[in-house]
Fold each of these.
Amino acid sequence: MPNRATLTSQSPEQTLEIAASLARQFPHALVLLHGELGAGKTLFARGFAKGLNIECNVSSPSYTLMNEYKSGNQSLYHIDLYRINCFEEVIDIGLFDILNAGCPCLIEWAERVTELNKLPHLEVCITRSADDPDWQRQIAWELKESQI
Ligand SMILES: Nc1ncnc2c1ncn2[C@@H]1O[C@H](COP(=O)(O)OP(=O)(O)O)[C@@H](O)[C@H]1O
Ligand SMILES: [Mg+2]
């Protein structure tokens, strides 16, 4: 099984499909999402939830820091670090409890807390394509091992 790939999405729907397929491949992952504002990180989170059969309103947790989406006994956590800059705060909101419970967790603006890179994770970088910045995105993913 490959541990990295770069895919091209031509539409929001394709981004949802790519994210859903990664969720099926890595259902327990800590996913660190990188990409500028409007790249499609929240949309990716919506697709990831869909891939785990979690049907609910996935929106940006910018003001709540963390959202939990549930379906039956499956949970998905969605964190936005736009307003957080330190690892302690991420620990305080329960990241390790989530990961130890085997629950998947998506983190937007993960680059703000560099310590997160040391944890085993699925790195996802979404960039607008120069050719068609309105609709086309490059979605590069890579499975990263623990550096601790
Ligand atoms: N191929 C694509 N993939 C993802 N989003 C796209 C794509 N084409 C257009 N968009 C639009 O880009 C925006 C992405 O918004 P959002 O997911 O909230 O970004 P972010 O969370 O990175 O700030 C949405 O309005 C979406 O419809
Ligand atoms: Mg967002």
Amino acid sequence: MTIPFAAQIARLPASTPFVGPEELERRRGAPFRLRVGANESAFGQSPTGMAAMQAALAESAWYADPTSHDLRHALAARLGVAADEMVVDAGIDTLLGLTVRLFCDVGTPVVTSLGAYPTFNYHVNGYGAALHTVPYKGFFEDTEALLEKAHEVGARLVYLANPDNPMGTCHDAATVQALIDGLPEDCLLVLDEAYVEFAPPGVAAAIDTSNPRVLRFRTFSKAYGMAGQRVGYCVAHREIINAFEKIRNHFDLNRVAQAGATASVNDDAFLTRVKAEVEAARQSVYALADRLGLYAEPSFTNFVALDVGSTERGQALLERLAEHGVFMRMPGVAPLNRCVRVGLSQPKEMAEVCETIASLVPELP
Ligand SMILES: Cc1ncc(COP(=O)(O)O)c(C=O)c1O
């Protein structure tokens, strides 16, 4: 029997969107000793957030507030926007899917960088929109090329992660603003700021919710250390937020996550500590690079791209690291795939990761 999938679903090739470290552990038959490959946070959670999550666990019989009222109001006050200029959902990944659904029909052109964060592409393909890519310029997303391509193909959406995954680079606010100002009519910028808390002031372009052509995404998965809880949000023009309200799944955000995020938002002492620890860990990777005569790209995120010279050497290093119980990943596309992505961690783990890399690099092909 032929199963009557919707036409767009029937067209999709079989795919596995993401092979997580747990699956890799099952395949190798042993757990990883060090998990520094998925851009998670190794720096804990806000103590006030943790206490709120523990208390909320006991209320698991109840649905969460479907409007995330308290969380939206806390975030809105922090960012200086109105609470109805924000939608909260189960991570940026969920919101990216909703965004593509809101703005793309089958065949609608969208633009991203070749090798950029792949979940956007995953949703674009899922909804049958037409993905156009431009290469990175060195280790940076090329905002001018994105703009040029957007004009060329008549794009509805342009995706930019700032700071970027997988390279950890970022553009300054003026460069992002020039991209925003140059967008074609009927084209919106999907501005993914998952790592913005790690970047210095001046990286995030000013939030202007009066401009209906910018959707800005942030998350509790990175600096706030809550990836497993799934909390992300989008700040945008009220009309766009109203459109999300037409289609989003109202109970996506679970009660524990909602309580934890709400109690963490303004824990600046925690964030300050995390940022300092991330900076210290970056320095240890830079020092490792110096010691090995390799290039480490200055990072504005919680990982560092370490250039090991070629894809072959990068793949060999990842395989050897896995044999030593270290889970790490690398970008998949040239010119980025001469790097491995070193996730930042606590000093003891970081020292182990660096020592393991240092012992393996001399043996690489
Ligand atoms: C650029 C970027 N955006 C979004 C995400 C995922 O965010 P969330 O956990 O909120 O879905 C990641 C995670 O690695 C990322 O690197």
